[in-house]
Amino acid sequence: MVQQIFNEYLPNMIKAGLQYTIPIAVVSFILGLILALLVALARISQLGGAFKIVKGISSFYVWLFRSTPLLVQLFIVYFGLPYLKIAGIFPDGIKLDPVVAGIITFSLNTGAYCSETIRAAILSIPTGQWEAAFAIGMKRSLVLRRIILPQALRTAVPPLSNSFIGLVKDTSLAASITLVEMFQVSQQYAGENYQPLMMYSLVALLYAVICTILTWLQSYLEKVTSKHITAGEGGAN
């Protein structure tokens, strides 16, 4: 059994991780971050008029995805949308490939949570920096891009990294929509060899290894983004 694990089960689980788990997590996180930034900027915007509708939609989106389970969201997108039939647009419903459905759901879910992280990071920057930049004639968009966002990024790195690590583990839920990632493969083998404890422990170990590597990368990224702060403190002393 041990030889079979290393010769057959383990390589196929690793293959599923490299083919589906990690790529889906990376793509979903990148798309989610883009969406999160847009939503965060919309929610902190001081624009009035019709833009208040955009702010309202952004707030509703964040509330919706933070208030419902990720598994339910996956089921709605993959199993529910095929029943959403709109004459002339989607007469047969919206049928998505499991990979596409997974990426869409994970991206939307990640965007909702990360938008709050980014919004809080931006709001943590002292208002005096905005005022000083406006005083020398800088436009709001330039202040945001050149002064505020770089500082907010350093604040947001730890929680955003944690969100990505959490997303990697959450991809296991995609097994429920027939996506053959690592956990789905372990389920298939457990059904074949009747060794659920061994198979699930093995896939848990693989997730632990991946998340440990990501934790090391997070620590390195935090050191890189905080270098100038350490250097600045040393110079001030």
UniProtKB/TrEMBL annotation:
Q: Name one Pfam family in it.
A: BPD_transp_1
Question: Where is it located?
Answer: Cell membrane
Instruction: Extract the InterPro entries matched here.
Output: AA_ABC_transptr_permease_3TM, ArtM/GltK/GlnP/TcyL/YhdX-like, MetI-like, MetI-like_sf
The protein's UniProt keywords, in alphabetical order, are: Amino-acid transport, Cell membrane, Membrane, Transmembrane, Transmembrane helix, Transport
Check the record and name the PROSITE patterns matching this protein: ABC_TM1 (PS50928)
Positions of transmembrane segments:
20-42, 63-81, 197-217
Domain called ABC transmembrane type-1: residue spans? 18-215
Q: How does it sit in the membrane?
A: Multi-pass membrane protein
Q: Does the keyword Cell inner membrane apply?
A: no
As for family, the record states: Belongs to the binding-protein-dependent transport system permease family.
Question: How is this protein named in the record?
Answer: Amino acid ABC transporter permease
Q: Lineage of the native species?
A: Bacteria, Bacillati, Bacillota, Bacilli, Lactobacillales
